[in-house]
Design brief:
Length: 369
C-alpha cells in the first residue's frame, strides 16, 4: 500500500494493521480527540489503510477550532482600543469572529503582535508600562500551565498593565457531551497524549465506566495512532471499557502535579461556549478571584458579549464527528485556507485544513483557494 512506505517502521505498521484486521468482526467508530492525531491520520492515510469495519471520526481536538466567535469578538474589541498591545499565538489571527478577525484589526493599524510564549507578553508589558498589554489565553489543558504561569508572574512582579483574555476549554467534559449526544456514533475514543501529560488519566476513568466506552491515550506519530486504534478495537471486541495508557513514555496516571497546583491556584472551572457546539457545562477555566485584576474581560468590560454563530459554516458538525469536512458543500469552494468560513479551515490542527492540505476532497476539487 502506498502509505506504508511513509511510516518510520513500515513493518511494524503492517503488523499493527494485520492485528486490527484479525481482531475486528463488526463496524466500530473511533473518535480521535486531538487535531495533531487528525493530521497524522489524514497525512499518512491511516483511515484508508484500516479495514472497512473501522471508521475514524474526527473530534473537537483543535483548540483554535473550538474557540467561539464571541471570544474572537472580545479580542477584536479589546485589540481595537487605543493604548492596547494585543498579544496572541499566530494561528488565532485568521480565526473569523462575527464580522472581523484579529488580522484585519492589525491591518487597520492596531498593535496586534504574534508571540511564541505568554511570558513574552508579560515582558512586553514590563517594557511598555504606558500600554495595556493583553494576552489571548486559549487552548486545552496543554497550554494552560504556561498561561497560568504568565498571570502568576505578572502578579508576583507587580506588572499591573498586563491581563489575559481567557478562553480555555477542557477535554473530559467535551468527551462526555459527545458520548451523551443522541446523534453520537462513537464507540471508543483516542485521548490526546499531550493533555494527559499535564492532567493524567484519572479524569477519564469515570467516563469510561459510566458510559461503557473505551478510552485509549495515544501520541501523535502514525505508529502511536495505529497502536491506539489496535488497543481500542481489542477492547471493543472483548466487551471492555477501560482507560488504557498507550503513551507511557510521556503520560503518567497522576500527570504533572506541579502544573496542576498552578492551575488550581490561577483558574476556576466554568461553563464554556464551544464554537459550533454551544455551551458545555464545567468545560472551561476562568481566572480565580485572587487574579481577577488580570482578567481582560472585566478590565475592558466585554463580559456580556453574545453573538450568533455562522449559519453557513458546518464546522460544528465536523467537530462533533457528525460529518466529514468534504461533506460540507462549502468545502474547497467558498471555504479555503485563504478565505476560511470557519476555524477548522484556519488552524494547523483543523480537520478541514487537513482534508484540504492532503487533498481529501471526496467529490470536491480542493485546489486553488
Amino acid at each position: 500500500m502506498k502509505y506504508l512506505s511513509e511510516f518510520a517502521d513500515p513493518d511494524l505498521a503492517r503488523k499493527l494493521l494485520d492485528e486490527i484486521a484479525a481482531t475486528v468482526t463488526r463496524h466500530w467508530a473511533i473518535m480521535e480527540v486531538c487535531g495533531g492525531q487528525t493530521h497524522s491520520i489524514i497525512r499518512h492515510g491511516i483511515d484508508q489503510l484500516l479495514p472497512e469495519e473501522v471508521e475514524l471520526i474526527h473530534g473537537p481536538g483543535c483548540p483554535v477550532c473550538v474557540t467561539p466567535a464571541e471570544s474572537i469578538d472580545r479580542g477584536v474589541q479589546i485589540a481595537s482600543k487605543p493604548n492596547v498591545i494585543f498579544c496572541s499565538f499566530g494561528d488565532m489571527l485568521r480565526v473569523p469572529g462575527t464580522s472581523r478577525d484579529l488580522f484585519s484589526v492589525r491591518a487597520a493599524g492596531s498593535d496586534v503582535r504574534v508571540v511564541y510564549s505568554p511570558l513574552d507578553a508579560v515582558t512586553i508589558a514590563e517594557d511598555n508600562p504606558d500600554k495595556d498589554v493583553v494576552f489571548f489565553a486559549v487552548g486545552f489543558e496543554t497550554t494552560a500551565p504556561a498561561n497560568a504561569m504568565a498571570v502568576h508572574q505578572a502578579r508576583e512582579r507587580g506588572i499591573t498593565n498586563f491581563s489575559a483574555l481567557v478562553s480555555h476549554v477542557l477535554v473530559p467534559p467535551a468527551i462526555e457531551a459527545i458520548v451523551t449526544s443522541p446523534d453520537s456514533r462513537v464507540d471508543a475514543f483516542l485521548a490526546a497524549g499531550h493533555v494527559c501529560s499535564v492532567m493524567g488519566t484519572r479524569q477519564y476513568e469515570p467516563i469510561a465506566e459510566k458510559y461503557r466506552v473505551p478510552i485509549v491515550v495515544t501520541g501523535f506519530e502514525p505508529l502511536d495512532v495505529l497502536d491506539g486504534i489496535r488497543r481500542a478495537v481489542a477492547q471493543l471486541e472483548a466487551g471492555q471499557a477501560t482507560v488504557e495508557n498507550a503513551y507511557e513514555r510521556a503520560v503518567q496516571t497522576d500527570g504533572n502535579e506541579m502544573a496542576q497546583r498552578m492551575l488550581d491556584d490561577v483558574f476556576d472551572i466554568t461553563d464554556r461556549q464551544w464554537r459550533g457546539i454551544g455551551e458545555i457545562p464545567a468545560s472551561g477555566w476562568r481566572l480565580t478571584e485572587k487574579f481577577r485584576d488580570f482578567d481582560a474581560e472585566r478590565r475592558f468590560d466585554v463580559l456580556d458579549l453574545e453573538v450568533a454563530e455562522s449559519t453557513t459554516c458546518r464546522s460544528g458538525e465536523v467537530l462533533q464527528g457528525l460529518i466529514k469536512p468534504s461533506e460540507c458543500p462549502e468545502f474547497g469552494v467558498t471555504c479555503t485556507p485563504r478565505h476560511p468560513l470557519g476555524a477548522t479551515m484556519v488552524s494547523g490542527e483543523g480537520a478541514c485544513a487537513a482534508y484540504y492540505r492532503y487533498r481529501r476532497s471526496g467529490d470536491v476539487a480542493a485546489t486553488g483557494g
